[in-house]
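Render this sequence as a predicted structure.
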Amino acid sequence: GWLGMINAHYATDREPLVPMPGALHAVAELHRRGFPQICVSNSHRAVVDANIAALGIGHFLAGSVSLEDVTAGKPDPEPYLRACRLLGLDPHS
């Protein structure tokens, strides 16, 4: 259907993807300093993985959370709580 076509488009046509100024440097610097990072997105898995690959930041990330990984997307706290669990962090401390 329509959603599948959108996801396929984003997964295959990622050349025009342009990061925010300074974003790639920030991700690399946080990694260099030992801060674990996870991408939390309301996009579907195929789009998240394609964008991470297009930006070349996969090796800086400890993982990612997509819309398919949760029952409620952002702004619900569930995706962020899942990211905390993946990192072994207590979100309440």
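Summary. The beta strands are 38-40, 63-65. The chain has a mean pLDDT of 90.
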